[in-house]
């Protein structure tokens, strides 16, 4: 995974500059995933600071145009993260995400009309972020399931699906493995996000 940026502001946070690029190497362990009422928000730890995937945040805040939302943030509050996926040393396709610094994340919430309207999903999401997520990140450095654990679980779940489909009608032999995987997923969310009301 590469985070593209070019220089740092006075707090040491990445600050983009058009003429120069520096590459930050991040590991899967730098990504956390938080879930709220079925929505997922990815957070990347960059030099000890949380950076939020803007498209995930906008979806949770019911903001229909993430590009417009990003343009309203200061340049030191936004950067592009390029994730190059690959297995066993082979390079896969690259995906780029707009990322918002913690201050940009707060601004997106504060500027969202729906986040200030009681009863909306965006309002519940913003309350949850300010009451649970941000205090946890500040106290412990993380909130949510580490991406590496979630990725490993998803990989094993996909292997199970392939094995079960090959067995066809003899699905009784797969029930134990399916139950173990379901229990493991619940335990992952319970351990890393204990207040999660809905587990998928």
From TrEMBL:
Against InterPro entries, the record matches this protein to: BRO_N_domain
Q: Could you tell me which residue ranges the Bro-N domain spans? A: 28-141
Q: What is this protein called?
A: Antirepressor protein
Give the species this sequence originates from: Raoultella ornithinolytica
Please name the taxonomic classification of the source.
Answer: Bacteria, Pseudomonadati, Pseudomonadota, Gammaproteobacteria, Enterobacterales
């Amino acid at each position: 995974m590469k985070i593209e940026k070019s220089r740092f502001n006075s707090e040491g946070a990445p600050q983009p500059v058009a003429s120069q690029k520096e590459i930050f190497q991040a590991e899967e362990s730098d990504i956390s995933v938080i879930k709220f009422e079925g929505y997922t928000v990815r957070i990347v730890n960059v030099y000890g600071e949380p950076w939020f995937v803007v498209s995930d945040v906008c979806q949770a805040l019911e903001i229909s145009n993430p590009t417009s939302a990003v343009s309203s943030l200061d340049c030191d509050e936004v950067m592009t993260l390029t994730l190059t996926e690959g297995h066993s040393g082979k390079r896969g396709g690259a995906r780029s995400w707009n990322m918002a610094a913690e201050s940009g994340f707060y601004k997106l919430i504060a500027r969202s009309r729906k986040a200030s309207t009681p009863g909306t999903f965006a309002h519940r999401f913003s309350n949850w972020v300010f009451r649970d997520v941000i205090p946890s990140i500040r106290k412990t450095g993380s909130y949510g399931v580490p991406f590496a654990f979630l990725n490993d679980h998803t990989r094993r779940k996909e292997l199970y699906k392939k094995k079960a489909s090959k067995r066809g009608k003899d699905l009784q032999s797969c029930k134990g493995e399916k139950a173990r995987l379901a229990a493991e997923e619940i335990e992952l969310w319970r351990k890393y996000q204990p207040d999660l009301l809905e587990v998928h």
